[in-house]
Amino acid sequence: MKSKKPLILVTNDDGITAPGVRTLIEVMSEIGDVIVVAPDKPQSAMGHAITINNTLYLNKVSKEDAAIAEYSCSGTPVDCVKLAVNEILKRKPDLCVSGINHGSNSSINVIYSGTMSAAVEAGIEGIPAIGFSLLDYDWNADFESIRKFVKKITLETLANGLAKGVILNVNFPKLKENQIKGIKICRQANALWVEKFDKRQTPFGKDYYWLSGEFVNHDQGEDTDEWALQNGYISIVPVQFDLTAHHFKQQLNSWNLNE
Amino acid sequence: MKSKKPLILVTNDDGITAPGVRTLIEVMSEIGDVIVVAPDKPQSAMGHAITINNTLYLNKVSKEDAAIAEYSCSGTPVDCVKLAVNEILKRKPDLCVSGINHGSNSSINVIYSGTMSAAVEAGIEGIPAIGFSLLDYDWNADFESIRKFVKKITLETLANGLAKGVILNVNFPKLKENQIKGIKICRQANALWVEKFDKRQTPFGKDYYWLSGEFVNHDQGEDTDEWALQNGYISIVPVQFDLTAHHFKQQLNSWNLNE
């Protein structure tokens, strides 16, 4: 008896027309039945934002590639997952994949990332989930070089399963397929963005700012995602949404809070 | 020699005019020198969103209460912290407090919360930070009953310090001061929102959705924030932004990823 194909939900944060998500749809269609619910416009850096004070629109769009159905959504990446699971899909998907993001979501970027927040939302809802990102912000980034690895990681995830509450954050270096040294399991590097605001004036004399910044990594650990990516490896960080700093509870209990 | 007063950055996600932040400013002014940088409109459920494809405005507003200066910002709560630290404050603040939120940020709400994301952003930037939330969504919620506890927790935090990478998530039950049983150090309860989308039609016949949902807590642990709050206690969860699921790394290393 042949097993049924897995049902795979695909989303992203660069918008439904981005080359990264189109590549992901193609690869996933080789593995399972694909439903796409992705933002109708770029939603980068939206973090885990949801739309609670505004309406949400969902449009069935003409499917390209090999997806069973595609929908664009007016909301954030997390809204897409919520709408997909509750309004579109007839059963809980076997996997949710998000991306392939045009740009890095390694290290602290995971917390600002719409791509990863969509995957984390799926994880919260009990769906195994993976976020894929390529370290190239270019719209015409080379996704061909990483297709083979995206497929391999997805098949291994379906075969092995993920623990409850764990989501995979996969980042690819900007390298040709034959330059990639392999896949490393990593921890999130302790790095951050140091902001540099660009202060300008409107034509009407009012000050405004553009947020820009410089990524600074003081964490030289060879077990980090940054190290792996800088040394030619694909990084996989298992991510969780229990944010409790369990190691600090004991110290907090020694404070004089109840006197 | 008298020590200098601590410099305290105050922000929130309900907007600079919300009674919750006004109470927080009053309490913080009893402790230190207060600078306020808060959104010019409600920014609830914005998670860790930042503004990268749009301009940011900052307006110095006439200060009320006892703050040294107050600014409203057109961006998200995380934008407020970034602008405060990089464009407004002459030195790194000794503490950043966010809130008091009108509504719960316990359990999984921490991940959707603009209030907590602002505090987490401060933590990423190396500033000790606390998010305060009251389990009452009402604009006219009773913040008087919790003033004493907000002050106590803040003073203890300044006295004891926080570990690098740890932020406090403080939630208050909706109770009178004399009904509150005390303060408990907790872990984040494993709970989630189960969505119920309200599907409607525009006057022009187009479907749209309102996101709503029901909070479901299957975690009966007496060490959770949900348990504490339901049993009359203030909950404090230490929160971290290293999202690595360290416990799952070993299992991932057993997968056949590099064959």
Automatic annotation (TrEMBL), chains A, B:
Pfam families on file: SurE
Gene3D superfamilies recorded: Survival protein SurE-like phosphatase/nucleotidase
What are the EC numbers?
3.1.3.5
Catalytic reaction equation(s): a ribonucleoside 5'-phosphate + H2O = a ribonucleoside + phosphate
Cofactor(s) for this UniProt protein: a divalent metal cation; Mg(2+)
Q: What is this protein called?
A: 5'-nucleotidase SurE
Enzyme class comes to: hydrolase
HAMAP family found in the cross-reference section: SurE
Q: Name one GO molecular function term.
A: nucleotide binding
What family does the entry list? Belongs to the SurE nucleotidase family.
This protein's source sits in the domain of life called Bacteria
Per the database record, which ranges form the Survival protein SurE-like phosphatase/nucleotidase domain? 8-193
* Gene behind this protein: surE
What cellular component GO annotations does this protein have? cytoplasm
State the UniProt keywords alphabetically. Answer: Cytoplasm, Hydrolase, Metal-binding, Nucleotide-binding
Q: Cite the binding residues for a divalent metal cation.
A: D13, D14, S44, N101
- What function is annotated for this protein? Nucleotidase that shows phosphatase activity on nucleoside 5'-monophosphates.
- Give the source lineage, highest ranks first: Bacteria, Pseudomonadati, Bacteroidota, Flavobacteriia, Flavobacteriales
Task: Name the source organism.
Answer: Flavobacterium agrisoli
Where located?
A: Cytoplasm
For this chain's record, the cofactor binding note is: Binds 1 divalent metal cation per subunit.
